[in-house]
Amino acid sequence: MHFTKPSPPSDDKRWRIVEATMRRHGYDSHALIETLHSVQQTFGYLDTEALRYVAKSLRVPLSKVYGAATFYHFFTLKPQGEHTCVVCMGTACYIKGAPNIVAAVSEKYQVKPGETTADGKLSLLTARCLGSCGLAPAVVFDGEVAGKVTPEEALERIGRWMNHDS
Amino acid sequence: MTPEELRKLASSQEEARPEPKHRIKICVAAGCLSARSDQVLQALQDEIARRGLTDECEVKGVGCLGLCTAGPLMVVEPEGVMYEGVTPEDASDIVNSLGGKPVERLLCPADSPFFQKQYKIVLENSGLIDPEKIEDYIARDGYTALARVLEEMTPQEVIDEITRSGLRGRGGAGYPTGLKWSTVAKAGGSRKFVICNADEGDPGAFMDRSVLESDPHRVLEGMAIAAYAVGASQGYLYVRAEYPLAVKRLRTAIRQAERLGLLGNNICGTTFSFHVDIRLGAGAFVCGEETALIASIEGKRGQPRPRPPYPAEYGLWGYPTLINNVETFANVAPIIRNGGDWFASIGTEKSKGTKVFALAGSVKNTGLIEVPMGITLREIIFEIGGGIPEGRRFKAVQTGGPSGGCIPEQYLDMPVDYESLAKVGSIMGSGGMIVMDETSCMVDVAKFFMEFCMTESCGKCVPCRVGTAQMYDILQKITTGEASMDDLALLEDLCDMVKHTSLCGLGQTAPNPVLSTLQYFREEYIAHIVDKQCPAGVCQIHRREGH
Ligand SMILES: Cc1cc2nc3c(=O)[nH]c(=O)nc-3n(C[C@H](O)[C@H](O)[C@H](O)COP(=O)(O)O)c2cc1C
Ligand code: FES
User: Fold this and answer.
1) Are the beta carbons of B88 and B41 closer than 8 angstroms?
2) Selection from B69, B93, B223 nearest residue B145 by Cα
3) Residue with CA closest to ligand 1 atom 8
């Protein structure tokens, strides 16, 4: 049966990166997870349009694509906030008080772990071991890892983002 | 590249390089990076350039130096002076001191038990070589084991050497590596695969990450030797997507090795070919389980399947597949270089060699350590680890992560080996070792791991999917003071059921943290249930009338 490659959801040039990933794997269905990684790395998250496009391109049922996208914690179907605060909840950080950091941020900004504030400014996330156990508890503020963080320090750093940008 | 050329390259590495008078090596692995060692590296390079000393002094980033808690760490050679807690502002003092007296206030005593009691095989290059330079690895005998195997040994001889060494899998279960290789070698068919498991799921451990970031070629060499031994020509490295630095360094390492003909087609000019590709994990603990990992490489949801058949017979795409952990592969080249008997002379009767641990929690010296098997827990925690900080009391040490257990004080003098740890209700695991003092509540710790297993259960089998959720609910009730003794009995029944009826290791071992804390700290459970009190003061007990 003849197969015509679907065209990307938009003419955003970044789709070429995703196409390159699929081409490298010969549009094989095995490349599903690699392709989802590529989409997420390029666009920050996976939206329905993207899932549909990947499904068609790799000739995998949409349900399977959706299944994989939701099974793996690394993939997110929602766009992230302007700033992200990732608190390590690995064992070392947990016993050194990471839950207090999560609770403090969660309460002050009314945001549950894994969610983004209503104004889209802050995403509060949790992770499992950042490899900085020696400096527990560890928090990643916008991609920058900080060690031995107290709840006060976390609030202070987030406070700076929130005030600065408004 | 032929073995002869490799040897030449190694010796030319030694000679060709105009030996700089001073060498500064600064750790740029995960722990020190989060203490801004990259900025220190930059500051030192700037300072040296500013003074026009670039030819005399070389500054380079290296892998983990171990004592993460005191980071950023650096070593100045040839003196071998070690500094801790270095900041960019210290750059000028450090450069001033070169060739003279060391900077007193930054000194980190390298003769402390933290360094002296360790025994490095897996981490022997870590902190010494630049992980992004294959020449550095080759200068330290890198790839000579591979060359020797291809030149002088038959696949069977390689397997015999590994068997003789007594090496057991470092991924957790401790299965004899030689035996596993031999099964895959004997399996029929012309297509076989080698997989390196770098999914490192234990949520408090980073040994594999450190090996990959500090010495990536070591793992590739081990995989290539394994591939030759079992007859595979394609390999996959399954790495967590959460380890971008490890992935980047592995990609660089693969490219460099291919360029020198140490990976790819006709390795070392022989007929042996071996290609390695990287596959990214996507944040699912269960994907560390071998059959789930294979499903994930195939592009599917990472769900385990019943074994047998084992991957050794029916693995990736149905072909015989050898799957080993990062640290297991990292042990291969030294065993070939020094012989199986040498390796077998280290450790205990049934557990040979060394083990890398990520020592963390309530202990003074946290970081990455490598110790001979058979060392006692007390030596690790109180000598290498320097004991418990702030005058607190040791309570328990957790090994094996979510599949392991909490070991109390009375077993501190027990040797660390696979059998002894299993006997007291824990496991060796992959190497997470978390020390806890009296401020940790054992019920809360059990709840922490149960929450982990509940979220990570893939949902395929009922005992694990439903059982972990029920156990979590009961633990939640206990920690809020709402449980009765009947609930505790139910919890124990559930432990038994989930342990014996789950499909894969995740469910089968999920009750371990509960069982071991119940065995040694039962009175803490009772205190929550009967006295409505958390002795450690961690849990928020809801006091309700009429209960
Ligand atoms: C739930 C679960 C998680 C696992 N996670 C890992 C892991 O992160 N890394 C690893 O090497 N092995 C892990 N294993 C063990 C693997 O299934 C497999 O036994 C191992 O990779 C074999 O390598 P080895 O013989 O070198 O230890 C896990 C097993 C289970 C049941
Ligand atoms: S547990 Fe938080 S960094 Fe390892």
Assistant:
1) no
2) B223
3) B200
- Confirm if B157 and B335 have CB atoms less than 8 A apart: no
Among 3.30.390.30, 3.40.50.11540, 3.40.50.720, 3.20.20.60, name the CATH number for the domain at B142-343: 3.40.50.11540
CA-nearest residue for atom 24, ligand 1, is B169
Q: Check B366 against A73: CB less than 8 A apart.
A: no
In the reported structure, the alpha carbon of residue B17 is separated from the centroid of ligand 1 by a whole-number distance in angstroms of 41
Q: What is the pTM of this model?
A: 0.93
Q: What fold, for B442-531?
A: de novo design (two linked rop proteins) (1.20.1440)
Minimum CA–CA partner of B72 in chain A: A135
CB A158 within 8 A of CB A146: no
- Joined tokens for residue B188: 């029929």
Domain ranges of chain B: 17-111, 142-343, 354-437, 442-531
Task: Report the complex ipTM.
Answer: 0.88
Cα(B390)–Cα(A154) distance, integer angstroms: 24
**Identity (one letter) of the amino acid at A43?**
F
pLDDT digits (tens, 9 = 90+) for A9-20: 999 999 999 999
Two tokens at B465?
């999917």
The pLDDT, as a whole number, for residue B298 is: 94
Work out the number of other CB atoms within 10 angstroms of the CB of residue B106: 18
**Main-chain phi, psi angles of B532, to 5 degrees:** 50, 50
Residue A119 CB partners (closer than 8 Å, separation 6+): none
CB A164: neighbour CB atoms within 10 A?
Answer: 8
Ligand 2 mean position, distance from CA A66 (Å): 30
Question: How sure is the predictor about B547, in pLDDT bands with cuts at 50, 70 and 90?
Answer: very low
Q: What is the DSSP string of B368-415?
A: EEEEETT-BHHIIIIIIS---GGGPPEEEEEESGGGSEEEEGGGTTSB
Domain A83-164 superfamily per CATH: Glutaredoxin (3.40.30.10)
Classify domain B17-111 at the CATH topology level: Glutaredoxin (3.40.30)
The correct CATH number of B354-437 out of 3.10.20.600, 1.10.630.10, 2.60.120.620, 3.30.1360.70 is 3.10.20.600
CA dist., res. B406 & res. B395, Å (int): 9
Answer yes or no: do A67 and B445 touch at CB < 8 A: no
A77 touches chain B (CB under 8 A): no
Longest pairwise C-alpha distance within chain A = 62
Q: Any idea where the domains of chain A sit in the sequence?
A: 15-71, 83-164
For B189-209, the pLDDT digits (tens) are 889 999 999 999 888 888 999
Query: B88 in helix, strand or coil?
Result: helix
Phi/psi at B432 (5° precision): -75, 135
Q: How far is CA B131 from the centre of its chain?
A: 17
Place of tokens 């009922």: B462
Give the phi and the psi of residue B37 in degrees, each rounded to 5. Answer: -65, -25
Residue B305 reports pLDDT greater than 80? yes
**A74-108 residues labelled b (16+ CB within 10 A) or e (exposed):** bbbeeeebebebbbbbbbbbbbbebbebbebbeee
- Stretches where chain A sits below pLDDT 70 are 1-2, 165-166
Percentages of chain B per state (helix, strand, coil), in multiples of 5: 45, 15, 40
Question: Three-class SS of residue B458?
Answer: coil
Residues 6+ apart with CB under 8 A from B171: B197, B288, B324, B325, B327, B328, B430
Q: How far is A47 from chain B (nearest CA, A)?
A: 17
Quickly tell me which residue has 């040296």 as its tokens. B48
